[in-house]
């Protein structure tokens, strides 16, 4: 049985995701006050973050490591707590988040 979290690739990706989250969260409250270019950049960072999170989630689901599977299930349980159906497909959840980002992009482009 592999230890998913001992992989250098996984550790690097998790570190990158944490750094990206911190960067994105720094500007989230100021988003309405950012310039158009800064808003576009913020949304691109958020989209990149979502992509990395989805890839890591998929890797956890496919892993044979029980801790990885447990963490993937915790992600799904968190979605349920937020009001999503019990049979939520987290990949669909990520797709919906990206769709929302695209709508926000269109909205800020109209206002520019």
List the helices and strands and how they pair.
Blueprint: H1 8-28, H2 36-62, H3 66-81, H4 90-111
Helix pairs in contact: 1-2, 2-3, 2-4
Word description of this protein:
By secondary structure, this protein is mostly helical. The chain has helices at 8-28, 36-62, 66-81, 90-111. The protein is globular and about 50 Å long. It starts with 7 loop residues before the first helix and ends with a helix.
* Average predicted local confidence, pLDDT: 91
Helix/strand class = mainly alpha
Amount of helix: over 70%
The largest sheet, given as strand count, sense and whether it forms a barrel, is: none
Count of extended strands: 0
Q: Hey, roughly how much beta strand do the residues contain? A: under 5%
Shape: globular
Separate helix tally = 4
The end-to-end distance, rounded to whole angstroms, is 53 Å
| Helix-strand topology string | HHHH
